[in-house]
Structures are given as C-alpha cells and as structure tokens.
C-alpha cells in the first residue's frame, strides 16, 4: 500500500511571500507525482505534475522532486489570497487511473 | 464541453438505509473512479470502472459497491448505512487509455449525511 504523507499545516503566509508545501511518499519505485488544489467547497483540480528529479516551474508554481529522499514539494512564489486552498499530493497506486492522495495541507494567504 | 456531473448533490439518510449516487463522466472518458473524502481520512479511493468493468478496488467493506453502464455513466451504492459513512463522495473521470497522465477530472461531489 503506497503511503503519502503531508504532515505540516495548516500553513499561513502573508501576501507576496513564498509558500512551501511538502510531501513524502513511501514507495521508492513511484515515478510520477501530482499536486492537486482544492478550494473550500469545491472539488480537487490538477495543478502540477512532475516525473523526474529536480524542479519543474509553471508560472508562480514550482514542483520539486527528490527521489533519493522520497520527497516532493510545491513552492508558490508571490502568494496571493486566491492561492488559499488545500493542496493535495498524489501518486499513482498501481496500474490504470488510481491515485493515492495525502491528507492535504491547508494554505491561507493573509492580505 | 460539460464536466463531470454528480447527483444528488446533498442527501440525508438514516442508519441502516441504503443510498445510490450517480456520476456522468466527461464525454469520451471511459474511466470513472469514486473517492470518499472526510476531514479525518482525506481522499480515499473506493473503486475504478472502465468499460463497465471494475479495474481497481480500494479497502472498503462490501457494503460499498458500484457499476458502470455502457454509456460510461456510473453509480455507487452503499447499503446498511453507518454514521461513519457520512462524507463527500467524489466521482472522477479520465480517458482511461494508455499512460495515465495523473489528471482526474472531479465532479462537485455528493455530500451524504447519515443520522
């Protein structure tokens, strides 16, 4: 059973700061990792995916993967109040379209 | 193009009753997955259907069941409801073919309250 841990949180940062969200996973053979964002009262949506070690940047968002440490993180630069949401880390769990999700980190960006 | 549609959005049941939830995936998507979301456990995988066949199953008791129809619409059923079944039930669709990109398209969910 693949495990995904998101132990830090809730997280509160001031507007304009960098928010750092962390996730660890148990299965060393995991090859791909995903970050979903869920606004309060809404459903999750995919915002970032990362497949190889290092950084992947998309606008204000950067996903970082360290397979040796089994660690994946999401950095949000210039945080905005609209970034306030729960961020879920996910890994594929076997074949097909199954994902195992972490419990999420709730981010609050203070104006 | 229309998103994933779930019905009903809200429902209240009493212990011992059963409930059926419905999900219509995005047109062209053949995979439908169901997740249970609770504050304590987060998002937990229930099962996945593809072309009317269950492809994956999570660690839930047999009271939780599902099916998929030839038009890819899916239903899940929970029998003999317990208080702990109170949750948001999310349906997600994807193409289901080839390499999984990790992108699931979620519906707005069905919020079940068991009294």
Topology summary:
The complex is a heterodimer of chains A (111) and B (115).
Chain A: E1 4-5, E2 11-14, E3 19-25, E4 33-38, E5 45-50, E6 54-58, E7 61-66, E8 71-76, E9 85-92, E10 99-101, E11 105-110
Chain B: E1 5-7, E2 10-13, E3 19-24, E4 31-38, E5 42-50, E6 53-57, E7 64-68, E8 74-78, E9 87-94, E10 105-106, E11 110-114
Parallel strand pairs in B: 2-11
Antiparallel strand pairs in B: 1-3, 3-8, 4-5, 4-9, 5-6, 7-8, 9-10, 9-11
Describe this entry's structure for a reader.
The complex is a heterodimer of chains A (111) and B (115). Chain A is mainly β. Chain A is 0% helix and 53% strand. In chain A, the strands form two sheets. In chain A, strands 2, 4, 5, 9, 10 and 11 form a six-stranded mixed sheet that branches. Chain A has a five-stranded antiparallel sheet with strand order 1-3-8-7-6, with no helix packed on it. In chain A, β6 and β7 form a beta hairpin. In chain B, strands 2, 4, 5, 6, 9, 10 and 11 form a seven-stranded mixed sheet that branches. In chain B, a hairpin with a 2-residue loop joins β5 (42-50) and β6 (53-57). The chains are: A mainly beta (111), B mainly beta (115). At the A-B interface, β5, β9 and β10 of A face β4 and β5 of B.
List the keywords.
heterodimer; A: 111 residues; mainly beta; 6-stranded mixed sheet; 5-stranded antiparallel sheet; B: 115 residues; 7-stranded mixed sheet; 4-stranded antiparallel sheet; 52% strand; globular
Largest sheet of chain A: 6 strands, mixed
* Low-pLDDT residue spans of chain B: none
Shape of chain B: globular
Percentage beta strand of chain A: over 45%
What does the radius of gyration of chain B come to? 13 Å
Query: How many separate helices of chain B?
Result: 0
Uncertain stretches of 5 or more adjacent residues of chain A: none
Which series of helices and strands of chain A comes N to C? EEEEEEEEEEE
- Tell me the greatest interface: A-B, 23 and 24 residues
Oligomer: heterodimer
Estimate percent helicity of chain B.
Answer: under 10%
Shape of chain A: globular
Helical amount of chain A:
under 10%
Distance between the amino and carboxyl termini of chain A: 40 Å
Mean pLDDT of chain B: 95
How would you spell out the order of helices and strands of chain B? EEEEEEEEEEE
């Amino acid at each position: 059973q693949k495990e995904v841990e998101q132990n830090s949180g809730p997280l509160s940062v001031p507007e304009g700061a960098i928010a750092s969200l962390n996730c660890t996973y148990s299965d060393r053979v995991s090859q791909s990792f995903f970050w979903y964002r869920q606004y309060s009262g809404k459903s999750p949506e995919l915002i970032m995916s990362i497949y190889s070690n290092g950084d992947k940047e998309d606008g204000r968002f950067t996903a970082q993967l360290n397979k040796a440490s089994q660690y994946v993180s999401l950095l949000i630069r210039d945080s905005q109040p609209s970034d306030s949401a729960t961020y879920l880390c996910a890994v594929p769990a076997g074949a097909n379209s199954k994902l195992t999700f972490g419990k999420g980190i709730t981010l609050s960006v203070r104006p | 193009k229309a998103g994933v549609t779930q019905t009903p959005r809200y429902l209240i049941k009493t212990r011992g009753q059963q409930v059926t939830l419905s999900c219509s995936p995005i047109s062209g998507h053949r995979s439908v997955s169901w997740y249970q979301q609770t504050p304590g456990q987060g998002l937990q995988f229930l099962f996945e259907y593809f072309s009317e066949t269950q492809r994956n199953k999570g660690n839930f008791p047999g009271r939780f069941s599902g099916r998929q129809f030839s038009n890819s619409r899916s239903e899940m059923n929970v029998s003999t409801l317990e208080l702990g079944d109170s949750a948001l039930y999310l349906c997600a669709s994807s193409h289901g073919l080839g390499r999984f990109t990790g992108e699931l398209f979620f519906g707005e969910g069905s919020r079940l309250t068991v009294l």
